[in-house]
Amino acid sequence: MSDTIQSTRVAIIGGGIMGVAAQFQLAENGWTDTILFEKAELTSGSTWHAAGQIAHAVGSRLMGWINKTSIETYKRVEAETGQSIGWHEVGGIRIATTDDEVDWMKSIMGVGKLLDLPMDLIGSEEVAQINPFYRVDDVKAAVRTYADGHIDPSSVTMALAVATRSRGARIERHNRVIGASRKGDMWLLQTEKGDVLAEHVVIAAGSYANQVGEWFGLKIPSVSCLHHYLVTDTVPQFADRPELPVMRDNAYGGYIRQEQKSGLIGIYEGHVCPTVWEMPKGAPWAAENELFQADYDSIGDFLMVAFDKMPILAELGIKRVVRGAITHTPDGGMLVGPSGAPNVWLSCGSSIGLAWGGGAGKVLADWMVHGEAEINTRGFDPRRYGDFASDSFIVERTKDEFMRRHDTPCPGKQFDSLRPLRKHPLYDRLAVKGAVFGEIAGWERPRYFGEVGEVEQIGWGHQRWHENASAEAETTRNSAGVIDLCAFAQFEISGKDAGALLDRLSANRIPTKDGRISLNHLLTSHGRFETEITIWRIAQDRFFTGSPIARAAPDFDWIRSHIRPGEDVTMINRSADWGMLALSGPASRRILSELTDADLSNRAFPWLSGQEIRVAGIPCYVLRVSFVGELGWELHAPLGQIGDLYDALFEAGAKHGLTDLGSYAFNGMRMEKAYRASGELTTDVGPLDVGLDRFVVSEGRDFLGRDALLKRDPTWQLFYAELHADDIDIHGGEPVLLNGNPVGLTTSGGYGYTIGKSLGWLFVRKGTPQTGLSVRILNRDIPVTVHQDALLDPQNLRPRSEE
């Protein structure tokens, strides 16, 4: 081993499609001082045995953008290098055999409209014309795509490597990284051929990511699951005819396509998920080009359905079975972005590597080089998993995700495994009152209240729980409601420099007086949203913040990362050991006054202020705010005392008609007040794009992202709109149309139960007129009316009520 230490700006660990595509996109962004380390040959992990499908018929704008970017990247590299990528642009057909699946196909059409992806919604007769070998008697509808298909895994990876090397980046094959340690501001990697100092490290190690992550103090939530595909003998009917499109059908949980003149059948079992190399060990270092014995008992029933769907394959022999390990995560999304360790980035956990690699590489490169991606990628952020993600959770929930991979993704759908994972003290109390829960960051939060043991009905239109949520909202507006928000990000930030830290991160001033509260937007260096937090100034050197629980780890890391050397700042993350109840409604002051000696009048306890007081004898942080637009308070207290606090509220509130409030009603009330939420405050826009100019205070002060924000000419604007539909609401991600042409997308929505209107937020291109707009939902163009102000209490008098 040489004693010479190399240095590089970026070291990439792993030579599959995710690592090579990331290195190529970094080079495209000007970062060519990079070295990719691969212990064997490029693609020798999971990439080489992939079936290589890339689809356009997907359920979200983000995934559609990722797949589209991958195809565009691969084609561009082929044109540049002259090296074939093995691209078969045969299109695809995604089949619907149930009513829910038909609704999903209609929602997919909206994604296609948003991204200008050519696709059609077709019927069974058209499916039969396109693929005369496919049985269509149970087909209710299908989405046909045209510009997607399948690719050769090794060819495209090698083409990317050629293009990357031509830009000056380096690839070292047969050189395994065997360890890492911190050395000053750099990472010292030990490799089989010598040490390397790297400013940044990208972990793109696929099935080896678990043990690689340990070198950097990381737990990487990725599991290697076994997936089958089978190649048949030659199909005589495939001779002398154009190649068939890729067929996808939930009935057998997979896909059927041509492989040269043979058939290829891919199966995702819906009843079991075989795994290998489970956490925390990961794949053995000696594993290369690893395949596993076929398990026909496991896939037999699914395979018979596939044969029934395409009978010409049924009597043929199987000449090759590929059963390889593919990484999956607990929610099915990739892990792309900052890891939480300094300058360590992830590009792994990808279950569809060829479809995602090019797009994921661009996201990662943009994030590393420019500080952000051009599209909102919070769903990929590796830090979305908190400390609740134990080894057993990661494995069991990932198995659940694998088995549900071909379930129809109806709105409201959630995982069942390991539920409830995190039970705070209110769980049992709420369950016996009929709470129907949803999981968020491992915690259970009531969605609505029904019958004990009720199972939530899910789907795109209004469901049975619509009436339950309406009753909760009505009682809260007329009397009072309390919602369990124990799943909430809560930080205490103290020290003589705490205020200076928060002020230089916030686009508007933090509170200047003890006891006051402000809503603050923390921006990136490019003037776009990093996060939104509520800041309560307890004292000059002591602050308390609140934000959505899903942002707990990223927000804590973001704020902490901006503490300067020598500053006196201490941060405590209370998110796991404190809880919060939000009491709202015109009777809330009367209820709370029975439990505290504190003066709750407007004079003594004004709107947007907080106090440390006792409620029912329990020390609480009490903030006078309300996200539903009513007189109200947030009550923050240690989780161990939240149950007693809840009981006391209902004992005092019984005569006032206090009700439990679930998240569905809560969201609808939020929409009536035209309050923006995380769906509107994404990483690809800033305050000026969403009409929050009043929250930017730039005169006489500097803050992170100030100059970039003020120089930006926003290209988007946000409309608050009423959807003219009685049976369906905006969920977010649907295309907004003007004269049938896409001009934007929805971000979030809900039903305003008090005013009886369906409402939503629309992101549209700047200059779009406010009239003549519609939203496409389930392939219906539904008109909207844009409103300038909240449809309930636009003067915001109710939260300031003297009652």
Question: In what range is the share of β-strand residues?
Answer: 25-35%
The biggest sheet, with number of strands, parallel, antiparallel or mixed sense and barrel status, is: 9 strands, mixed
Shape: globular
Radius of gyration, in Å, reads: 27 Å
The count of DSSP E runs of length 2 or more, i.e. the number of strands, is: 38
Straight-line N-to-C gap:
79 Å
CATH superfamily grouping of one domain? FAD/NAD(P)-binding domain
Looking at the overall shape, the CATH architecture of one domain is 3-Layer(bba) Sandwich
Can you tell me the residue ranges where pLDDT is under 50 for at least 5 consecutive residues? none
What is the arithmetic mean of pLDDT? 95
CATH class of one domain: Alpha Beta
Indicate the structural class: alpha+beta
Number of helices: 17
**How much helix is in the residues?**
10-25%
- CATH fold description of one domain: FAD/NAD(P)-binding domain
Describe the structure.
24% of the residues lie in helices and 29% in strands. The protein is an alpha+beta fold and 803 residues long. Among the domains are: 6-378, 3-Layer(bba) Sandwich (FAD/NAD(P)-binding domain), CATH 3.50.50; 489-575 and 684-705, Alpha-Beta Plaits, CATH 3.30.70.1400. α11 (465-478) packs across α16 (663-672). The mean pLDDT is 95.
Offer a quick outline of the entry.
24% of the residues lie in helices and 29% in strands.
